[in-house]
Amino acid sequence: MTNWTDLQSCRFIEASARERAIGLVDEGSFTELAGPFDRVTSPHLKLLGDAVAFDDGIVTGVGQIGRTPVFVISQEGRFIGGSVGEIGGAKMVNTIKLAIDFHDELVAKFADLDEEEKPMVVISFETGGVRLHEANAGLLAHAEVMDQLQKARGKVPVIALIGSKVGAFGGMGFVAAATDVIIMSEFGRLGLTGPEVIEQEMGKEEFDASDRALVFRTTGGRHKYIMGDANFLVENSIAAFREQVSALTGLSIEAFEEMRRIGSSAKVKAQLRAVALAAQMQPGDATEVWSHAGNTDAWGLIDLPLSDFLARVERLSV
Amino acid sequence: MEMQESMMGRGRDAIEMIVDAGSFAEGTVGTEAFADPEFGPGAVVGTATVQGTLCTIIASDGGAMNEKFPVVYAGIIGLEEGYKMAEAVYASIAADAEKPLAEKRPLVLIVDTPGNGPGKVEEIFGMNKSTAAYQLALAEARLKGHPIIAMVIGRAISGAFLCHGLQADAILSLDAQFGTMIHVMPLTSVSRIIRKDLETLEDLSKASAVFAAGPRFFHSLGGVEALVETVEGMRPAIAARIAEVRTAKAEGRQDDLGPWGRGKLGEARGGRTERPRVIALMNREFAEVAGRYAPAR
């Protein structure tokens, strides 16, 4: 394992789940829960004669950023695409639950607890959703995660980090959408239906899944930032993600609520204005929406260095 | 098992079978009116009584097509549909905001949906937000005391079931003789993707419910509370569940309901035994170190 200082400059997209988990919090502060030494492995994969992972493809634990306890969930795309099964799903669910319970415990114990001392949850996504080898259990776990996200509302902020190879798709695409804040790198991808499935449903003329530039224009970090689906767009390093998370510690829960895209009737009504725009525009390409947002040279945004992009881009407002 | 006539694609018929005769007011929930017939036609929302109790009804209409979003047909939940369903939930919460727990209106979800809208426009604008918005709204209503009962009548498939069904307090399903489909993917597709032959998977699914398709497997995993044997049985079964859920909420037993409650049920029924083990392990491990993460004073 690389040391913490070296991890900071690691490219986020290539970092393993454990490297991300350790590097995102303060040096030496991470305690892994149900880690590989516990060897909790999927009996369902074993039954099928498939390889198992001692952490079931997900790293869960707790660390600190400054004075803030940070509960971390980090998915490993190199193990069956970061897919969620019974054990990995339960680890995810229970990490959020531990954060909520810890919040309640601290609030009850310390009358003068300040915002920075309250726990937060960080989820580093790298997954296509349900693990088909144990699909039903994985699906049920997704519903439990959504339930915990709602239970965390008003207490524990939940931050999504998306910048790993696999992206965040399928059921985990909803989970990411349901968090308070989404931080992406330009290499992150977020969506519901993966590109191959869209191609299969709509035909190659409509959507060519092998066209990587098209895939990134539709689901990538720059697009999601323009749409307001990503709150922050950062450089592709563990340090950059860590700094952005760190900048959010200590904010009030109301400030986190404001950063949400969905989660109230008013926010749904705002999203419906965007849907009306979708119906009216019927965009054949995401760049048409970028132009509509006020970017005169939409195609030129694609290759701008990140800092220039952030300085120049107009984000969609409906 | 004698096969019965399928309810697939018949969400509107199911509403009539479930609610008290003539009581369904489509397009009205509390003070919210869904007046535009072209808005989210794949989702039917409204208010009705079920054995005298005022309920919000949310169903999919398998016969409707959304002209603006052509991926929506056969009960698919599209961008508009997900948000429309969410709005029906928020309207229910708002209508009963001042009422005591015992008077929060139940929500009845009639489930027959094959999927969430796949498509380029959907991805550009973020279909994931639409379905997530509905799930969060349901979870909020459930936690605020509204009893939510899902009744699976046809297809409850993968992400669409997550969206419309799996956030309920309790889930009922017509039994297998109705051809009810509950799964992430049919076993034939699973076999192709994970590269295992179908016969092996069929054999294994007799011993393990975690990847097999059908209401009975979900029942053993705790993913479905109870199976209903006849269409006439739906109304009394839903009414009885509403009463049970109300009692549980009045007694503060929210943890026996909803997704977390179904986790406990999955353990009790022997279908999901790893989940509680790993949760207990994490709780023990965290308890040992929790002091390090609390303020030092």
UniProtKB/TrEMBL annotation, chain A:
PROSITE patterns associated with the record: COA_CT_NTER
SUPFAM superfamilies per UniProt: ClpP/crotonase (SSF52096)
Keyword annotations: Transferase
Family annotation (Pfam families): Carboxyl_trans
UniProt GO BP: carbohydrate metabolic process; fatty acid biosynthetic process; malonyl-CoA biosynthetic process
Presence of the UniProt keyword Transferase in the record: yes
Protein's UniProt keywords contain Transferase: yes
One GO molecular-function entry: acetyl-CoA carboxylase activity
Domain named CoA carboxyltransferase N-terminal: residues: 1-257
Highest taxon of the lineage: Bacteria
InterPro entries associated with the record: AcCoA_carboxyl_beta (IPR034733), ClpP/crotonase-like_dom_sf (IPR029045), COA_CT_N (IPR011762), Malonate_beta (IPR017556)
UniProt-recorded name of the protein: Malonate decarboxylase beta subunit
Species whose genome carries this gene: Rhodobacter viridis
UniProtKB/TrEMBL annotation, chain B:
MF GO annotations: ligase activity
Pfam family, one: MdcE
Single GO biological process annotation from the record: carbohydrate metabolic process
InterPro entries per the UniProt record, alphabetical: ClpP/crotonase-like_dom_sf (IPR029045), COA_CT_C (IPR011763), Malonate_gamma (IPR009648)
SUPFAM superfamilies: ClpP/crotonase
Domain CoA carboxyltransferase C-terminal: 1-284
NCBIfam families: malonate_gamma
Name of the protein this chain belongs to: Malonate decarboxylase gamma subunit
